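Course assignment 3, question 2. Fill in each field.
Student: A.L.
Task: Predict the tertiary structure for the chain below.
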Amino acid sequence: MDFDVIVMGGGLAGLSTANRAAELGLRPVVLEQGADERYPCNSRFAGGLVHVALRDLTADAEDIHETVLKNTGGHTDEALTRLLAGNAGRAGEWLRGQGAKFIKAGPYEWQRWVLAPPRPRTPGLNWDGRGPDVLLRTLTANLAERQGRLLRNARVEELVMEDGHVAGVVAGHDGGTARLTAPAVVIADGGFQGNADLVREFITARPEALFQRGAGTGRGDGLRIARAAGAALTGMDRFYGHLLGRETFENAKLWPYPILDHLAAAGVLVDENAARFCDEKMGGVFMANETAKLDNPAGIVVVFDEAIWTTVGADQRFPPTPNDSFVRVGGTVHAANDLRELAGMVGLPADALCATVEAHNAEIESGAMDGKAPLRGKAGGGMTPIATPPYRAIQACAGITYTMGGIAIDTHARALDKSGAPIPGLYAAGSSSGGAEGGPLAGYIGGLSKAVITGLRAAEHIAGERAG
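Answer field:
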């Protein structure tokens, strides 16, 4: 049980790290808490779109960097954004070299690198045999061929330090306890969205009101052991997610798709008091994050009308659509010819809902904000009057997929302490690391690209240290 590098987590970040380490002549071992051969993890459940801030992997690095800064409001580590921007194309080509296959899935820039076979535009999870699942199986086979090891049903309990340097881990494995030694440990266990206590500490007072839109296997084990070793944490208050129907808690066919983001962006998203509480034009990730801040995140409702339902709701540009597919799998769309009646159906105060819709329509007609509600970005472009009966509403919730914050790292993926110095032998990759996305705008970078790039950097620095 003596290795050159121990990788914590068998998702895309962990398998990328381990395979690159093996390519460079190191002896890696991956410790994966899942016991099944095709263990659940966010990478396996992903949609398969590989991008950086919705930009093509081969776009100009400076353009990608500027896009990241804009999307995050400049509240990210500039060196990390340059790392992601400068290595995006290389990450795509490295994946191709591992056997990954890509297709162009649509006209938009973020659809140019989609793992094949692509996911169908249908409700539900649908991960089996799709691009991300195939990629993880391919990387697992590659690792075995390179004499690397993958231990399943292995959950890290403790980080072993000797004289201030990482020396290995203690892990529970197959009902027992094992001590594994290595001069480097890479934490790549996927964030803390599956740990209600950490979500409560950093994101919302009501973690039970957020639906686990991913595998839910990111339990923050890596975060815990890194924290105990003195690692700094950064950007902990933001997550990647979307708006889902509230019935998702009882109906597995309603997640991770359809999403309700575009309906909310065209109409209004209101809280339990029928008041708008955020800029809907900022998109679904932002709306999900702002929902989490509410006293009652479980009380949100998306309100729109027949015209929005038959246009935005049926727009195939944003797969999968939340229109007929949502109803077909059991989602409820409340409808009434009178706003007051609609308010009663979804438990909202009627006077307040009428006032909110009236203000929404007046804003569109005049092109000016009334100053009483959250401002809308992009001059309110894309909003539609809620004026065509029947009026419609969907009781919604915020779905959390992965946490954006995590262990502070440098451009070699080394974990940093609170003074900004690297902790010898400790690294973090993928969603376990923070600093590259989030901020007040909840800027989304892309979990798959971040996983590969930081994983490659960690492996290459460890190999360099070993050789040096």
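Instructor remarks: The domain at 5-236+404-467 is CATH 3.50.50.60 (FAD/NAD(P)-binding domain). The first strand starts at residue 5 and ends at 8.
Grade: pending
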